[in-house]
Design a protein that fits this description.
Elements (H helix, E strand, L loop, with lengths): L1 H54 L4 H14 L1 H7 L17 H5 L1 E5 L2 E4 L5 E2 L2 H11 L16 H4 L1 H4 L11 H18 L6 H15 L19 H45 L5
Antiparallel strand pairs: 1-2, 2-3
Helix pairs in contact: 8-9
């Protein structure tokens, strides 16, 4: 009986040793396989982010130009009329794919831009744009957003991008197509049926943007102008006056002091000449 018990004990100990040996020998392979899996996942995430950036066929640069046109040549007139765009209008900020990312751009100085999401710094804005494409693609407004660059034809983006094509002839078909798009924006964003303010803005939009879509060359975009710069010039003129006014009074004081000094000197000379000469 003792021999059987001893044999069984030895057999169990052998099994336990074999199990531990198998576990120890396989653990490096398990660790390596887990590490490889994580590497593959990271690589897939990076490739997926790059594919997302490639799949999004919307120019950030031209979208930015369209946004600049809206902010400078349309919003000031809307503010005067106290008019709010409907979210159905394609010019509404919520319908811009890049609206949230553009709001999270932090401009420090000429050579430093900062990401508002992760606070990482970049030397140029274009590098920050690449960072948004690769790291923050999930924050794009893809649910309801649309590509604002698609409206560049109607909004004259080339004019604010300093794009010149003087040698190319005017394309009648393109001008007609852009005018049609421009007029549809005017109808959708400023329906005349909404009241006097919408009617005035509708008419302004046609003159400001749509009328210039012609090959005659006589009409230019932004005929009504943009942001009012008079306040800036008034402020600059006021500051200049405040600086020059003390200088002017100092100049007058010096002239007056010089005149008074010469007058006293002449009086002394005159009194000396009036003295009677001894006989």
């Amino acid at each position: 009986m003792k021999k059987v018990t001893t044999i069984v004990s030895i057999f169990l100990i052998a099994l336990l040793c074999l199990h531990e040996l198998v576990h120890v020998s396989s653990s490096p392979f398990l660790y390596a396989s887990q590490l490889c899996f994580q590497c593959r996942k990271l690589k897939q995430d990076q490739e997926q982010g790059h594919e997302h950036a490639q799949e999004l066929h919307c120019s950030r640069e031209r979208s930015r130009a369209a946004r600049k046109v809206i902010e400078e040549y349309l919003i000031p007139f809307m503010e005067r009329e106290n008019y709010q765009l409907s979210t159905k209008c394609r010019l509404h900020p919520e319908n811009d794919i890049f609206s949230d990312q553009e709001e999270h751009k932090i401009f420090i100085d000429r050579h430093e831009w900062r990401c508002g999401y992760c606070k990482k710094s970049f030397r140029e804005e274009k590098f920050l744009d690449h960072h948004f494409d690769n790291r923050h693609y999930n924050l794009l407004n893809l649910t309801h957003g649309k590509c604002l660059a698609d409206l560049c034809g109607a909004m004259h983006c080339d004019a604010v991008m300093n794009f010149r094509s003087s040698r190319s002839k005017c394309n009648m078909a393109a001008a007609s197509r852009n005018r049609h798009l421009c007029e549809s924006l005017a109808d959708n964003c400023f329906p005349i049926s909404e009241g006097p303010s919408a009617g005035r803005l509708h008419e302004l939009f046609l003159h400001q943007f749509c009328d210039a879509h012609t090959c005659s060359g006589k009409l230019k975009p932004f005929s009504r102008g943009g942001k009012d710069q008079s306040s800036f010039f008034r402020l600059a003129a006021g500051a200049l006056i405040l600086v020059l006014l003390p200088v002017f009074y100092l100049f007058l004081y010096l002239i007056q002091s010089d005149v008074n000094g010469r007058t006293q000197e002449l009086r002394r000379i005159s009194k000396a000449g009036w003295k009677t000469k001894p006989s």
